[in-house]
Amino acid sequence: MLELALGFAIGCYVLAQLFCLYRVVIAPGLSDRVLALDTMTINMIALITLFGIRQGTAIYFEATMLFALVGFVSTVAFAKFVLRGDIIE
Amino acid sequence: MTAPAEIAIAALLVIGGAFGAVGSWALVRLPDPMTRLHGPTKAATLGVGAVLVASMAAMWFRHGIVSWHELLVALFLFVTAPLTGLFIAKAHLHLSWQRDELPRPGADTDWATYAERAAANPATEAAPPPPHRR
């Protein structure tokens, strides 16, 4: 049953990544693209964690943490660039 | 692994997967950029949170190892998800709205993005020059 639930969750997140990819390629505005990229990093965290559960190890924790950190910093850097025209003033 | 634990972990995984898929579907489905912000910031956080709790429980019940690492990731996401939502909303306002298109925000304040008050605000006032340049 756990294998079935794992497969369902992985399928859901793969579908979510495809939706986000569509929104990155076809978007009405710049902020939508960045929102979709930010969502892609969040979904990637879930995918890596699900892969870790499947493999039965906890060593993918560093990868998820790196994704979380880099996703947050890149989104904030984008917003700052749009608002102020500069990232490091 | 006992049966109740397996059921609980499977339920968490299904909830997490459903929330993640719905949160990203909102990006495609919803009509307006400001409403599109709503899906990912709430649903993806809850979805990833459920997946991380499921990972902790699976490590505990399967291998007898108590793993606190996932809690760190969940805490980080819970702190940063509102911030990214706010920043993207602010950037969107700045990019696609003129100041006179927006409603008045309240008494005698202005929208922070258009920061006319920022100059008069003592918190953002320029610091006095260092003594040797006076």
Bulk shape of chain A: flat
CATH fold call of chain A: Helix Hairpins
Structural domain count of chain B: 1
Instruction: Classify the secondary structure makeup of chain A into a structural class.
Output: mainly alpha
What fraction of residues of chain B sit in β-strands?
under 5%
What oligomeric state do these chains adopt?
A: heterodimer
Give the helix proportion of chain A (percent range). over 70%
Protein name (chain B): Na+/H+ antiporter subunit G
Transmembrane segments (chain B): 6-28, 40-61, 67-89
Organism (chain B): Paracoccus contaminans
Keywords (chain B): Membrane, Transmembrane, Transmembrane helix
How does this structure look, described?
The complex is a heterodimer of chains A (89) and B (134). Chain A has 89 residues and is mainly α. Chain A has one domain: Helix Hairpins (Orthogonal Bundle). Chain A contains three helices and no strands. In chain A, helix 1 runs antiparallel to helix 2. The longest helix of chain A is centred in the middle third of the chain and has 26 residues. Chain A is flat and about 50 Å long. Chain A starts with a helix and ends in a 5-residue tail after the last helix. Helices cover 63% and strands 0% of the residues of chain B. Chain B is built from four helices and no strands. Chain B is elongated. Chain B has one domain. With 134 residues, chain B is mainly alpha-helical. Chain A: It is a multi-pass membrane protein.
